[in-house]
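Input.
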Amino acid sequence: MPEAIINGLQHYWEDHGEGEPLIMFHGASQSSVSLAHHALALSKTHRVIVPDMRAMGRSAHVSEMPPSAWIDDAKALLDHLGLQRVHAFGISLGARVALRLAIDHPALVKTLTLELPIIAMEGATNTALNVNLGSFGNLPEADQKMREDQHGTDWRNVLANYMSIRNKPELQDHYSLRETSKGVRVPTLILRGDEREVVHPLGHCFELHQNIPGSWLWIRPNTNGSSLNAAPEEGYALMRALMANGQ
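Output.
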């Protein structure tokens, strides 16, 4: 799969299918591996590009970076691929990246799909993430294998680096999008299950729905976590309808 030096660092991405381009951003301390099944399914109708974001996966395992790095890398990757407009999907951290990409580069993004979005890092959410992500020292063997599949044999360093990066106040300020999201004008789908949990506040979906005129909101009932994982065909149909609407 493709690799290139982008913004002075090694970057890896998956690239599947043909048609209108869709870029997909993975979640915190994850990699393109976590979205592989969705990418392959959506590649039946779209060209799907899934980067390993800086510091994770098979991209450069850096220990620090400027707050705008993930956005700068996404823009540079799309320039490298010669793509002037794309659909964008993100889950959790990836939803923050996709949303910020649309805010910073509105002409680049045709549509947005935001799953389990976090629009600002609040106290309880930040504490829960630090507890969940910081517990990698005692992971079960199966979880260790999953992390190695995503990041390689130095996965512990990747997670430690990510914890350091995410706890920089300037990075969290950069991804505090409660106000700036009000300027988004592209067709947008916001989705999650109806589970109430601290890491991805349910209320953030409703806030984004209010902030983005004409956005679609799908809260799937009786669903924990990702509605796309729980009901992929339902989710793909909504995404494809949104992307057709954003031509």
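The first strand starts at residue 3 and ends at 6.
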